[in-house]
Automatic annotation (TrEMBL):
Organism, as annotated: Rhizobium lusitanum
TM segment ranges: 20-43, 55-75, 156-178, 198-219
PANTHER family, alphabetized: ARGININE ABC TRANSPORTER PERMEASE PROTEIN ARTQ, CATIONIC AMINO ACID TRANSPORTER, MEMBRANE COMPONENT
Name assigned to this protein: Polar amino acid transport system permease protein
Major place of residence: membrane
Alphabetically ordered keywords of this record: Cell inner membrane, Cell membrane, Membrane, Transmembrane, Transmembrane helix, Transport
One Gene Ontology molecular-function label: transmembrane transporter activity
Length: 234
């Protein structure tokens, strides 16, 4: 179909570019979300009541706040904060936070809140003997966490984190509302220009299904790789 083609009058290149931006936003959000989520999970296991309370409060807050509101708050709030600070220095600027950066960071904060629950369950699923073994080896706290605990926790957490990744991919469509030229925004622009609602939105559905299936395949391979040492040969 000419509408979806890469020639004159086609939107193919725009859709491809938008699809790459969608993946970019998700990939940028993932490592931050994983790291923050792990820190929150460790905080919830802390001996300090204050740290535990702060960790639980963070998780509850970002699970309750709509993702779109978080994106708007980060994008507009940070932009206004920077402009205010610049004005205090007598520097006039209309600079705004890049949409990709703001959207990725906002989604990472939400991802962290949900991934902390998965990390918490994974850490609880590791036998006490593993912690005692790390101590008996004389490993300091951070080293024992990195060498002994985290590899096992990641394997246990992978199925849940994989599901969150799929959700994250779909949530990236929200960044189109802060003028990020992701896949959903490009589809909406094409719809506004051509009024081919059914065809283009059906195509958008297929695009996200494709991303999901590719992700499921990659996650399955990663799961096999992280669990291959558990397979016994007869």
């Amino acid at each position: 179909m000419e509408l979806l083609g890469f020639g004159a009058g086609g939107w193919g290149w725009s859709f491809l570019s938008g699809l790459l931006v969608t993946v970019e936003v998700a990939i940028l959000a993932l490592p931050l979300g994983l790291f923050f989520g792990l820190m929150i999970a460790l905080g919830r296991r802390s001996k300090s009541r204050l740290v535990r309370a702060a960790s639980v409060g963070y998780a509850n807050a970002f699970q309750a706040i709509p993702e779109l509101l978080t994106i708007f708050a980060i994008y507009h709030g940070c932009s206004q904060l920077i402009q205010f600070l610049m004005s205090e220095l007598n520097i006039q600027t209309s600079w705004t936070v890049p949409g990709v950066a703001a959207g990725s960071f906002a989604l990472s904060l939400v991802f962290a809140a949900y991934s902390s629950e998965i990390w918490l369950g994974a850490l609880a699923g590791i036998g006490r003997g593993q912690y005692e073994a790390a101590i008996s080896l004389g490993l300091p706290g951070i080293a024992s966490l990195r060498i002994v605990i985290l590899p096992q926790a990641f394997r246990l957490a992978l199925p849940g984190l994989g599901n969150l990744w799929i959700i994250l991919l779909k949530d990236t469509a929200l960044v189109s509302l802060i003028s990020v030229s992701d896949f959903m925004r490009e589809v909406n622009l094409a719809v506004a220009a051509t009024h081919r609602y059914f065809v283009l939105y059906l195509f958008a559905c297929l695009g996200y299904i494709l991303l999901t299936k590719i992700s499921e395949f990659a996650l399955e391979r990663l799961s096999l790789r992280t669990s291959r040492h558990l397979v016994r040969t007869v």
